Amino acid sequence: MPSDSKSLSPKLEKIVARFKRRSDPKQKYEQLLWYAKKLPPMPETEKTPANKVKGCVSQVYITATLHEGKVKYQGDSDAQLVKGLVALLIEGLNDLPPEAIIKIQPNFIEETGLKVSLTPSRANGFYNIFQMMQKKALEFELETSA
Questions:
Q1: Per-residue pLDDT tens digits for 38-82
Q2: Domain of 25: which CATH number?
């Protein structure tokens, strides 16, 4: 089921297009590892239970701050492929207003072709990471509308 491209950020659309151009699953993994290498390091002090993504086999941490109405994420994982998924999501969602992040449907992962290549636990981890990022955006949205 294709995602509604209107709900994706331009950065996320570009990421989806980049993965769609790679037909070989190995190339898709290499693309994920490239994202993992690009991810800025996360301070160890941020790796707290409150920032840990639940339901992931790997250790995954996500933080979010709101700066001038835009969400800025940071993240890390102890597994390189999962770190690539974190980096992909951060790249696609950073600098968006909370309401835009809340509207994005996670089915864009199917368009990348990655879901087929991911183990069920990694695919589930992807959804858990995405949901935590949306939850943090929703918290900002509720704070600013209160």
A1: 999 999 999 999 999 998 889 999 999 999 999 999 999 999 999
A2: 3.90.1010.10
Question: How many domains, in total, are found in the chain?
Answer: 1
pTM equals 0.91
Which residues span the domain enclosing 135? 5-145
HSE at residue 3, side-chain half, CA atoms within 13 A, is 20
Which residues are catalytically annotated? 56
Strands, E assignment, the chain? 60-67, 70-77
Does residue 114 contact residue 32 with C-beta atoms inside 8 Å? yes
Q: Which of 146, 138, 19 is nearest to 85 (CA)?
A: 19
Angle at which helix 80-93 crosses helix 10-20, to 10 degrees, equals 140
